[in-house]
Design a protein that fits this description.
Radius of gyration: 22 Å
Oligomer: single chain
Strand content: 15-25%
Distance between the termini: 23 Å
Order of helices and strands: EEHEHEHHEHEHEEHEHEHEHEHEHEHHH
Number of strands: 14
Structural class: alpha/beta
Helix content: 40-55%
Number of domains: 2
Mean pLDDT: 90
Low-confidence stretches: 1-5, 11-16
Length: 392
Amino acid sequence: MTTAVDHITTEQTPEATLPAGTPRVLFACGGTGGHVYPAIAIADAIRAEHPAAAIAFAGTRDRMEWSAVPKAGYPIHAVTVSGFQRGISVDALVRNVTFPIKLAKGLWDSLRLVRSFDPDIVVGTGGYVSGPVGMAGSMKGRKLVLQEQNAYAGATNKMLSKRADTIFIAFDAANEFFPQNKCKLAGNPVRQDLANADRAEALAHFGILEDATVLLVMGGSLGAGPLNNTIRRNIDLLLDDSNTVVIWQTGERYFEKLETSIPVHPRLRIVPYLDRMDLAYAAADLALCRSGAITCSELAVTGTPSVLVPSPNVTADHQTKNAKALEDKGAAVLLPETDLDSQFENIVLSLIIDVDRRASMREAALAMARPDAARTIAEHVVALAETKGGKT
């Protein structure tokens, strides 16, 4: 993994004025929102209790953390990493030939970052960048905490697990991938506003009558083609019930084509992106969506019954394992993408009219929820930081 060190800084307490015993925490995360936003949530929870805490992030300049982290108010240092390529293309083979050199350089520059920021503790929430930074922190005698979002553990967290002091997991199923004595079940840190949204406000926001049954369809910020195609084919069937309203988040790349091809309907809200997820969840009686780790945690925190369609294009099919964890508790129904069209009416439409089953699923989802995950992890991180971990 190769490293080119530069950084974006934000206003923070100068080191010379930091009170004695102030925790210094370095977060390593990158690649996707599923890795980045839990780290930001934990950092926010630390800052809420320890306003003077010295907090910094390590990430990559060409991924979303480079803008998301400074926007959240934290400095970020660039660590450009290169993972092992699993493909058999010429490009993948060339990259893999240079992988050991890049790995060594990435570790060397991560050691430089640890020396310069001088953290008491490193917190890794996944992505390639967590590997060299977590390794460097451990080699320099700093405490190491990992947070695994998925039911199936990521390669970086598995690699670092033997060096970690504590591993926070979101699903019981992740236990099997780590040393048992290091695991703590805490859930995934999610936005605190999600659980506090008011349904009446949510319905007013979307212009929906109070007695409507609302289906929320979402495929992430980019959208999901298979979900969109199924809804397009079944939209008349969905809206045939005069009580059903559909909030359909298509994703930016699909929106224009779908908006022009789907007739306007008073009970259809078709949007490219949902910027008020708190109100979307509060309005929803049922969600049809992918089963990324953070989405699953948000569904639990908000008590939203769901039909989960795992993406088949993810490492180790981890979305299926996430969905299975919710289905096993009675909080969701797992619907494979291959069965989406054939089983749409039997599963989705039947749940829209089955009030009692949705109520049972809601109770099961809330029973799984861990709304205090960010604070729980933050308290543990600060406590470990206070032990200092024998800096070298």
